Amino acid sequence: MGRSTWKYQVFFLFSLILHSQLPFPSSLSSSLSSMPPCSALLHFSKSFSLDQRVSASNTYPKTASWREDKHCCSWDGVECDKNKSHVVGLDLTSSWLMGHIHSNGTLFFLPNLRRLNLADNHFRGSLIPSEFGNFKSLTYLNLSFSVFSGQIPFEISQLSSLVSLDLSKNGLLIKAPVWKRVIGNLTQLRELILDRTNMSSIRTNSLMNLSSSLTTLSLRYCDLRGKLENNILCLPSIQTLDLSENWLSIEAPVWKSVIGNLTQLRELLLGGTNMSSIRPNSLTNLSSSLTTLSLHYCDLRGKLEDNILCLPSIQTLDLSDYSFNGLLPSSLFNLPNLSTLDLGYNQLVGPLPSHVSGLNLIVLSLSSNFLNGTLPSWLFSMPSLETLYLDRNQFFGEIGEFKYNSLKNLDLGYNKLHGSIPRSVSRLVNLTILSLPSNNLSIMLGSKMFSKFKNLETLDLSNNSVSINNNAAYALPNLQYLNLAYSNISEFPRWLGDVGNNSLYYVDLRNNLLQGQFPTLNSSNLQFIFFSNNNLTGEIPSLICDAIHLGVLDLSHNNLSGMIPKCLVNSTSLSVLDLRMNSLHGTIPTTFVIRNNFRTINLNGNQLEGPLPPSLANCRDLEILDLGNNKINGVFPYWLGSLYKLQVLVIRSNRFQGRIGNPKTKFPFPNLRIIDISNNQFNGPLPIKYFKYLKAMKIVEESEVASKYMGENYYQDSLNIMMKGHYIEMERVLTILTSIDFSNNSFRGEMPKIIGRLKSLKGLNFSYNNLIGYIPSSIGNLTNLEWLDLSFNKLGHIPSGNQFNTFNNNSYTENLGLCGFPLSRTCDNNEAKQPPPPTLQQDENLEHENGFGWQAVSIGYASGTIFGMFMGYLMFKIGKPKCLVRMVKLEQHIMLRRLKKNAHKRGGRR
Ligand SMILES: *[C@@H]1O[C@H](CO)[C@@H](O)[C@H](O)[C@H]1NC(C)=O
Ligand SMILES: *[C@@H]1O[C@H](CO)[C@@H](O)[C@H](O)[C@H]1NC(C)=O
Ligand SMILES: *[C@@H]1O[C@H](CO)[C@@H](O)[C@H](O)[C@H]1NC(C)=O
Ligand SMILES: *[C@@H]1O[C@H](CO)[C@@H](O)[C@H](O)[C@H]1NC(C)=O
Ligand SMILES: *[C@@H]1O[C@H](CO)[C@@H](O)[C@H](O)[C@H]1NC(C)=O
Ligand SMILES: *[C@@H]1O[C@H](CO)[C@@H](O)[C@H](O)[C@H]1NC(C)=O
Ligand SMILES: *[C@@H]1O[C@H](CO)[C@@H](O)[C@H](O)[C@H]1NC(C)=O
Ligand SMILES: *[C@@H]1O[C@H](CO)[C@@H](O)[C@H](O)[C@H]1NC(C)=O
């Protein structure tokens, strides 16, 4: 804003000084209620500032050209009646208006308005004044996308001449009584558009009473709920019907009447409606005049037979999202008027047709199917093609040369393509998304190819073979997202310091062969930095402090030295700080600020020393704290007990010492599930009081805790865990893994009975301490236990039954005086009644009782921009035995497709 606003205000003052003729008043003192229309208009426009950002691009402020020396009937956007006595139309669409609309505004002194359009401006959350009800002659009213808020006033229902009403995209609320009056009184309505209006209190059967003259009804994202009944859609004139993205369901009879009765339909959009009871072949009878059909995410399961869609007029066809299987119907590629075809996220198989005739698509998306074969040449010869998404299929061969330069979005990721990027790509001046991850491409970055990409926002070449040529100088001024992970680059793309200036927010160079100093990055906008698994050396530069919005910093598995920059610790934006496996030294900065955003702090495997800063207690959102394998000293960090969300605490292999003592907070560590304090110098008795309160470890029902991985789409937490005797790096941590590791300390005394209450424990390790006495039989209640290590203590008799029978000798070795089954040594004095050795039969019973098995598996995960191989801990409900010591390790690749359904690319979709 600024310039034009200022200009305008000066003009207005000037106009007041000039003596103006009618229809302007000579001064402001004249009564507002009798203000002539031109003055009212000028007054109205003066109440806004002009701000280019609030309207669509390529628009201009109409009011800026309003000049008092011309009659207002000639002003841009103003329409008068024949004898210029009344203003009857006002169209200020996309006019950069920024400001409030008040009920005393002079807009309401234009009672003869018939058409009013204020769409695409910014009214700062103004309520819609009830005075709108005074425009008795209004036939057309459009207030969409202009930042109004609150309820739709019932006075709107007094506009009984309205033919078209659009209040969409403001996030307004309409309540049942107002809705009832609207549909009861606005009998002339032909267009009703209320997208993104909260209609959650409206019953779907009220749609039945809508004006039968409606030609357009659009209620997208309106929070409508329920089943559409048979007689609801009695709209004989309807041409455009959009009920997408609600909680509606349609069953076969209604669908039949939609198809049979709504014969005028041109556009039918029902995305997100549950249509699972409808078979795809019922699409056969759709009106042949349809130009738009969108049934994405409608759950129409079944085969999409060839030739079921007889839609000669269709232009936009969206059948994406988990519905259809079978061969890709090649008939779809012969629809003569088709411009947008989206069949993404189905289970279609087979190749693309090798020839098509007359196809001229603008958008083609076949993402995430099981399509294979090579990419036919027609894909590269469509003169208007702007979007081509073929990612997540099994295409092979090379990418063809583009014949035309219209392409804006290209995603061919997650296929089996090889070769290089075709030369013609360098001519695609409007390219915004170039995404080719996870293929077998050989890509030379830095050749002249990229010099014309002024609009490029997304560049994802990860998991290919990329080489960087740092001699070529070029800029990617609009780059926002850069992913070159797993691409064998050994040089840092030096131009990265210049690209994107302030637009780059995501940079992923994980798992490459980068050497040397931490690169210079000039983007204060950076939110995600992934440089893990390289060989970066030197210090973390303080330049990183310029990235004031940084949310994820993953520099793990490098050779970084020096200290942790203070700014990383006193950040309020950082959520994930992963500096694990480097050579950082010094103390952890003490300045964790109040109201910070940390969720994960992982500093494992460095040479950090000194005590833990008490200000860590400011990390109220912290879920994972891993400080293992450092030289940190001091007492047990009891002050972390107040962190309500803390789930994982690992301080293994440090120099902590002393007794753990009693908790200082009332309910310490309520959500802790993994605690590893092994290999320190803790002594004294085991901390019974803490065991008493570890609430999360007492919850057994798997259904009570969401079994999901820790982390978000963009960052999955990984951890080093001592599990079943192996130090395993788990790349993803399931939220139901529960373990206690107190091994290799000097804990004395007996094992407390109370341990038996931590029923969700999967692992318990008290080995290498000085525990004495009996193993409490309550441990037999830990029916989820999968690994138990009490070796190298001074424990006595092993109780029998339950879990105990399932652990072998190694769980108990080197305990002086330990005896009883399953050890080979029996106890004297009838201390233990030795149970019969388990037979196969008994084993089976145990297995069936439990009904499912837990297995450590290795899974592969691919989701949009994140890709990796890792160990995971995954639940299988397979009705297989629960083998407590006989753990099964499986190699398995699982695509968790829906997790991030390419949110980056598809933005607003669900
Ligand atoms: C109109 O109402 C607003 C808010 O209620 C107030 O700030 C403003 O002074 C009023 N303007 C006139 C001309 O009365
Ligand atoms: C319907 O419109 C008429 C004419 O504008 C108006 O007088 C009446 O109050 C309206 N009824 C409702 C229920 O709003
Ligand atoms: C809609 O069509 C069905 C048959 O397809 C018919 O039985 C029904 O009467 C029609 N309903 C209306 C309201 O026209
Ligand atoms: C392509 O997929 C189909 C169906 O899954 C399969 O029968 C065919 O063998 C595949 N072709 C190639 C070349 O992989
Ligand atoms: C690139 O986009 C601009 C603006 O939309 C358009 O005018 C131009 O024709 C496009 N260039 C090509 C090669 O399609
Ligand atoms: C990492 O870099 C250091 C020093 O630059 C070098 O000595 C070492 O061999 C490198 N390690 C790997 C795995 O490349
Ligand atoms: C962090 O510390 C730096 C320097 O000590 C200071 O300038 C900055 O304001 C601090 N940030 C916060 C969020 O406290
Ligand atoms: C095991 O749990 C049951 C039920 O919670 C309880 O009654 C029993 O006393 C426990 N057994 C031991 C040995 O603690």
UniProtKB/TrEMBL annotation:
Transmembrane segments: 852-876
Keywords assigned by UniProt, alphabetized: Cell membrane, Glycoprotein, Leucine-rich repeat, Membrane, Phosphoprotein, Receptor, Repeat, Signal, Transmembrane, Transmembrane helix
GO CC, any one term: plasma membrane
Topology class, membrane: Single-pass type I membrane protein
Keyword Transmembrane (UniProt): yes
Top-rank lineage group of the source organism: Eukaryota
Domain (Leucine-rich repeat-containing N-terminal plant-type) ranges: 40-81
Main location: membrane
SMART domains, per the entry: LRR_SD22, LRR_TYP
Subcellular location: Cell membrane
Signal sequence segment: 1-20
One Pfam family here: LRR_1
Keyword hit for Cell membrane: yes
UniProt-listed SUPFAM superfamilies: L domain-like (SSF52058)
Similarity comment text for this entry: Belongs to the RLP family.
Protein's UniProt name: Leucine-rich repeat-containing N-terminal plant-type domain-containing protein
